[in-house]
Predict the 3D structure of the following.
Amino acid sequence: MPVIVHPTAFTPGSAILGGVLMGLAVTFTMLFLGRIAGISGITAGALPPWRKPDDIAWRYAFILGLATAPFLVLWAGGGLPERHFEGSFGWFALAGLLIGIGSRLGNGCTSGHGIAGLARLSPRSFVAVAMFLVGGMGTVFLVRHVWGG
Amino acid sequence: MRLLLSWILGLVFGLGLIVSGMVNPEKVRNFLDIAGAWDPSLLLVLGAAVVVTFIGYRLTTALLERPLLGDAFHFPTKREITPRLVVGALIFGIGWGVGGLCPAPAETSLLVGPAEIWAFLVAMLVGMWLVEHALPRLTRWEHHHELHH
């Protein structure tokens, strides 16, 4: 269990800039494609069996865009921000399993409910985001302050 | 055209995650750690993204009848708060607290690693598949079983 804590600084400027970029991506996904830019939904829809063949390729292109973003930053001469992965493979596999199950049961993740849903003032998304925070804050509290001592 | 655009949309979204530092799982977990090393940056990321999307969605639907490269605006229509939504979002939140990762930042790190990312992503796809394909089969079987009693 990851008990080592890497403190991070509050970075309001880059946080707002990054948020604006994400908001623009979500907006233009609706403007051009008519789709909610919910990453878990885009990903789940890319998995077989492919029931709507003409609704698949754009999902892979979008995911490829996410995955190639670090290379754009490196190519532009920037560096990737520091990233710390505390925990074993099993720990991250557990996280992934919960994220996969939870996002499909709850029909969305931090982008679909968090950004698009809150922007639409959707009651379902307000409930979902509240539960994300309850689950996430509760888990980190347990791991860092109860079990981690 | 649609594919190139989808790639660019994913790229901009991923860029936002990198610029804001949200690709660092510890920055996310520090946001969730209000009793400890609290870093409120994520709040500003989400806030900025929601404000931009709120305005962007309104402008989009006010100015256009349908998306520029799509058939219709596919906004979710579900309104009810179901136990499935609440439980799913809670499971998602727990997974978020465990790993400090959700689908978008994990996919942004897909090609640059580290290997913990792949453990997370494989497990996430398994989780999604379980809910999308194994769970319906299971409940169908139960339903089928009931019919024959």
Chain B has six helices and no strands.
